[in-house]
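Chain A, query sequence.
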Amino acid sequence: LTHDGRWLTTTDNRNTIRVWDTAKLDAPAKVFSVAYPAEAASYCPSKNKFAAGGEDMWVHLHDASTGAELEVNKGHHGPVHTVRFGPEGKEYASGSEDGTIRIWQTDWLEAQAGA
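Chain A, predicted structure.
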């Protein structure tokens, strides 16, 4: 659920991620198919991105317009069970079965390109 309560993100523990407008809930506003089993996902409308993770132990950042994978973050040593964007969307956190929580920068690649 986004911080304003408007958008709910769900996964099917397989390859589908859905973003729901909580004002309607009759059908998903966005549906994405990903190339990995996604167990957890979070949508950030202000950055137009979503992040997801699962059994592959990686955290994937995607463009929410196209579904294209933008980044793959590696660092967990167990399946990723939770992903959540910060209130301003500048970062997102992931939690793993290995007992760790990692914080990732949402615009890290753009910052590196501009440096």
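Residues 20 and 28 are 5 Å apart (CA to CA). The beta strands are 7-11, 16-21, 30-33, 38-44, 49-54, 58-63, 69-74, 80-85, 91-96, 101-105.
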